[in-house]
Amino acid sequence: MKLLATSICLSVFVFSQAGEIVKQISKKEYVEQWRSTAVQQMIQYKIPASITLAQGILESGSGNSDLAVKGKNHFGIKCADWTGETMRMDDDQKDECFRVYSSAEESYVDHSEFLKNKSRYKNLFTLDKGDYKAWAKGLKEAGYATNPKYPDLLIEIIEDLKLYDFDETGKPNNEKVPDLVAEKSLETTVVKHTVLIHENKVKYIIARKGDTFYRIAKEFGLGLWELYKYNDFGPKKDVLIEGDIVYIQPKRKRSKKESIKLSHAMSLREISQDQALKLGTLQKLNENSSADQLMAKGEKVTLR
Fold it and tell me: Which domain CATH number covers 239?
């Protein structure tokens, strides 16, 4: 998709080839969206949250790049030692291979694993996690990027946005962040989710403020891919919202109900979550190939 950028009232928009207007994510919005995930990764992997966020901003264009939008890859990690999905893009060389993830959060986890498990980055973990300047320079020296100005670019982002606050306390500007980051490690999280059972006999939890896919997957011993598969999350679902239904086991292929009449406009994807019924089943039953097209209030939806 070729994009043309324009500025409107201090917000940045792009026009797709289809003529759609898409608002671009700003650096500050990106930080707001991913700050707790970056702190979680710092707690578990000892990578400065400021570095993780700055790299995410720089490598993904604040989540707006084609690689980030289409491949959920926020850190520009290429295909070496990768067995998952891939996509091709021009980078240092033409038509290079990049990793593709099921969610942007999976990209964050893989970024941490990539740095932690690659021997060439081992010296980084001898540095103070509060020394973002040393980490920025160390990443370049270890070969993360070819741009000689890479450390300066990271440092500029960190200092402009005061991302170093996250490294000191895990609480930006003394504001309390989600309860997970107050713990010393993911394994010591005290507060657990209450497991509920849908009338269609599927276990689920209700997302709380600050919840992430990774946190829930970790708590219930699931892979991120399982969480996405169980919930039919669409490609635009990168962040959980308080009150979201999150299934921790597969939804059913059959409902006890014959049908429902919609009390308000909903998409089949939303109905799938509401009824604990697989999205594919709903699409077949209702002869509707579009998961996200809204069905009108009062419309009948077949469930079996």
Answer: 3.10.350.10
